[in-house]
Write a structure and sequence with these properties.
Chain lengths: ~230, ~230
Amino acid sequence: MHDHILKSYDAEQKRLLDETLRMGEMAAAQLEAALDVVQRRDDKAAARIVANDEAIDALEHEVSHDVMKLALRGPMARDLREILAAIRIAADIERIGDYAANVAKRSMALNTAPALPHVAGLQLIGRLAVKQVRDVMAAYRDCDVEAAQRVRASDAEIDAAYTGLFRELLTYMMEDARAITPCTHLLFMAKNIERIGDHATNIAENVWFLVRGDDALPPREKADESNTATL
Amino acid sequence: MHDHILKSYDAEQKRLLDETLRMGEMAAAQLEAALDVVQRRDDKAAARIVANDEAIDALEHEVSHDVMKLALRGPMARDLREILAAIRIAADIERIGDYAANVAKRSMALNTAPALPHVAGLQLIGRLAVKQVRDVMAAYRDCDVEAAQRVRASDAEIDAAYTGLFRELLTYMMEDARAITPCTHLLFMAKNIERIGDHATNIAENVWFLVRGDDALPPREKADESNTATL
């Protein structure tokens, strides 16, 4: 390719990366804000978070559009992996944004009943998930496979915390029938956060694919046993 | 391009479509089988469904691989949309497969307690979701935008059935504390099925994108109100 064509390709690829990184930070900030409104029981702020999700969706459309434009130039090898990774990572971030918005939305249902003492566990796994999202986006920005692998390995921590919270919430529901509806919302909020951890893991695997191509991913442990939990 | 190059491109594109359609049918069959094992309380068959999910994941890797190969040929316009649609649809089917496997996995937890009478509602929305997956894959195969739009519109039916089931399960949990753990699994199983409906909708939107490009999607109604349900 001519020099000026290469330059404009690089500029568009840089733009694509910047958009994806911006999306990631928006999703992390949305989750952080959602955890905050759960704590503060602030319906107005919760409604704002739900509305903000559109901005992430709009950015995903821009990413898809830019991927289309770059794909038309017939990129090869690493350049091609860059755009495939961007489209997949943008899809994961879009889902993370949806889950964060759903946490905010469900907080409004929680606020129709008296405050629960069980919200602390949610904050804990929520903060772990925010960190996972920020760490994996930094690994993506830096093409840092080792950092991405660390995010992938830490997902077991979120899974274990989720399983613990799941069991804890079941016991509250058994002790007091009035806790059933709010605890069910908390169960789904916790599940949303656990899923955010899974999407951070997907992003980590795309960083691996971007840098290492078709090399096989190293194995990792899973610790979510709530699927088979019985009390 | 030369004639023989065009021919081999068409053959590879056909192969990509066939793989994606095969993935879709595998996911629909997995969900059907999962509903069946819930009904029959068959742990062995449930374990087989969980194990089968790997075959869908492997097929998604093949689709990604074939998309990479096709993208190297620098496809334009409709051809480019074909491969972008294939990669996104394959990702949605992979998730549908995960949700179907999770329904089977949770059925094993249900089987540790006496049979519940509340499984009928799950079968109903499960069958709706199986139909949505098969219908949307047929719409994709035929590039039938109208059929895809019908699938998109019917998602409201699954959402409404899910909201009803969600409320029904909450009442059983309130009536009998022993029902809390199994009903929680049923809540998550119902949620998985409702999410399968959402992924069928995503596929329908990709059929639209494939055929109509960047034309704006027509609006549609949503009917899942369980996020804000209070009892």
